[in-house]
Amino acid sequence: ESYPEDVCTHVARRMAVAAQKAQVVAYMQRDEAARQAQVRASIRAAVAALLNAGTALAGGRIHQNRHYVLASSEASAIWVNRLDTAPERVVLGRLDWRTELDVVIRTRTSGGTSAESAADTLSEAVFSRVMTNPTLDGAAIDTVPGAITWEDEEADTPIAVCTLRFTVIHRTSEESLSA
Q1: Residue 43 burial by CB count (10 A; 0-12/13-18/19+): exposed, middle or buried?
Q2: At residue 11, does pLDDT exceed 50?
Q3: In terms of Cα–Cα distance, which of 43, 24, 10, 22 is closest to 139?
């Protein structure tokens, strides 16, 4: 059968639009897979980067997954540690993950400032930096604050320890931990 030229043109245009949409979807899936591969590995680093941005907190002494040792020459330091990651739910072939992070602040009495006062100031700054950028510059879907705990340690000078827990929500495919 023969169809009028305008029908053939219309069908050709619709097929071209469908092909373009398929290309965009394939591109976005590739981009998402590459981004998610980096997300899992970079969540802790993204939090550390926020704390180092601009005027770095704790004089830039921000450590990742290290033991909590505050050198006697240091007034303060911060540690960012990934605790665990657990799947939460499947949404349209995707897994939502909850990654628990602890941000541990250690301060000592120094220069007339008490350890507790210095820890209060740093904990407020850490909380503010993380919660004003809950997607961690695109590395996560959201960041939810958790418990804040306090400890005091006796040493040659008093040391205050404040731990802020954050839950970072991110997404992967249901077949992979990273994509």
Answers
A1: buried
A2: yes
A3: 43
What is the pTM assigned to this prediction? 0.74
| Cα-based angle 86, 133, 113 (whole degrees, multiple of 5) | 100
| Three-class SS of 85-122 | EEEEEEECCEEEEEEEEEEEEEEECECCECHHHHHHHH
Q: What is the CA radius of gyration of the chain?
A: 24
Task: Look at residue 57 and tell me whether its pLDDT is greater than 60.
Answer: yes
Question: CA 78: distance to chain centroid?
Answer: 16
Q: For the residues of the chain, what is the DSSP string, one character each?
A: ----HHHHHHHHHHHHHHHHHHHHHHHHHHHHHHHHHHHHHHHHHHHHHHHHSSS-GGGG-EEES------TT-SEEEEEEEEEEEEEEEETTEEEEEEEEEEEEEEE-BTTB-HHHHHHHHHHHHHHHHHTSTTTTTT-SEEEEEEEEEEEE-SSS-EEEEEEEEEEEEEEETT-S--
Question: How many Å from the N-terminal Cα to the C-terminal Cα in the chain?
Answer: 48
pLDDT of residue 5: 65
